[in-house]
Amino acid sequence: MTSRTWFWIVGVPATIIATYWALFMSPLPFLASWWDVDTAQPNMFRTRYRIADRLASGNRLDNMNRQEVIALLGEPVTDAKRMGNPDLLYVLGPERGLFSIDYEWLLIDFDPAGKVSKVVVASD
Hints:
The chain is α+β, with helices and mostly antiparallel strands. The protein has four helices and three strands; from the N terminus they run ααααβββ. About 35% of the residues lie in helices and about 20% in strands. A three-stranded antiparallel sheet has the order 1-2-3, covered by helices on one side. The termini are far apart.
């Protein structure tokens, strides 16, 4: 197999997949202007979802109290009963995937000392 054939069989699809992941799926760092971009209607880049993924997997919110989280992310949703009653609940938008039946949420819980103990992205 020549190097040109190898490039077309492996290189091109790998480049396409990597580019797609980088543009549309990779977690994003928190920037306030990006967090508020698609609150009403998700855009094709789904920035709020991807920022929430980074918040849930990273340590950005560690050691923050309730007031600091609200100052950073804005006012949470007040109807938290629907997702198991977390301390703070932020709507991300329709569930990612081909069929968006449910919504995705960012759930934040605090420990008895008032510091963030758990950050999770969940769907209802």
